Request: fold
Amino acid sequence: GAGVSQSPSNKVTEKGKDVELRCDPISGHTALYWYRQSLGQGLEFLIYFQGNSAPDKSGLPSDRFSAERTGGSVSTLTIQRTQQEDSAVYLCASSLGLVDTQYFGPGTRLTVL
Amino acid sequence: AQSVTQPDIHITVSEGASLELRCNYSYGATPYLFWYVQSPGQGLQLLLKYFSGDTLVQGIKGFEAEFKRSQSSFNLRKPSVHWSDAAEYFCAVGAREYGNKLVFGAGTILRVKS
Reply:
């Protein structure tokens, strides 16, 4: 079946602009996660959604970052007023349940000029 | 705080040689563990996982890993490396108590000599 998909695959933006990154999880997966992969920090957890529960936002680095998940499926990660340090690959993952294997999408490479 | 250590940043092995990638963790809860592989420009592909039960787990592409609770380790092994195994390998740890948020090691880049 289809895996996790993310769009766009690449995004180049100017400092100060807002960006939206999209994730389509595997159908039927109730849990969705966002991670960030950067050269200096490695792979870091950002946020996760589980069913109808309030999301765990404990990994978001600043209030410029937000995410939503509509209809229990598609998720959008929004970064406002982008900074150069936001340049990274943003990975989305989904799992069938909360304690289950996470399957990753191909990522969105964000470059902030 | 939870942490995962992959002590080797780079490893080079000859094709056909055996491989062991090390992973140690520090966790305040009963962990479950994963190894993922990432090729350049690609996402993370699951190699294998351990949740409970038999501490020696088999994965795809001929990889296996052994969970040793006493040593807080989950080392990845392969008896004979192929050139196509060249990639970056990540060990990851999660726990129900922490909401399944994965903590990743820094990764080990594997180079294969022909």
